[in-house]
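Repro:
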Amino acid sequence: MITPPTLFSTRWHWPGLVFGHIAALLLLLSYALPTGHNVWQSMGASLFYTLNGTLESNGSWTWFWAWMNTREVDAASGLLLLLFLTFPLVIPRERLQAALCGFLSLMILMLPARELLSEVTQHYGLSGPSPTRVLQPAYLFSELRPGIPAKDSASASFPGDHASVLLIWFGFLAFNSRHWIKGLILGAITLWLILPRLIGGAHWFADVAVGGLVMALVTLSWAFASPLAFWLNRGIQKLMTPLFRLCGRIPLLGRLPFFAASR
């Protein structure tokens, strides 16, 4: 892949684009074909028993991961992702507005990939119930901690939409940080936010490692090996700039690093 001077590529880079799609296709085929599917399910079952089994004692560990699987913590996690797009933790302050609009561009680019993968999943019957619905023993938050509204199962768990957004966020920031320590920190945060669904058993390992990664590979390929994300980001920035300038005039709010480019 090329290293563009902007957040995204400004020209077509066909080898990178083709490589990203071939990698995504091979990964998906490894899950779709019977032999590979059985291997993924076997790995998923082993990981499920290892992670979910830690909830057996129903102590503070279980309480913590139950809350990590709630909508409230999902919302807080979303704010954490936004924190890295609105404060100069990885992206320089003069590029923060472009970074936020850029992430919105990536979410738009992800939609066709998500729709196509959904069609493939339905056509070939790749999705199924989460491990907590088919494996035993399974320790459910709804039984261990009924007072906590935690997600611990799904009727159709593939692909992992939650994981795909996190992996795209990681890829976008890691590519633009170009600093291995920051990349490690971003990777640790991504893994930490993916873990709750695996520990709770709402997703198989393949939902993340195949479903989530396939969508991330396709989306990031179009972002960093084609000018589509660059064009889309430029359009969104033009639409959002007046709003950013208006918000930048608000006392205190306008002092935030995010609005530096508006002043």
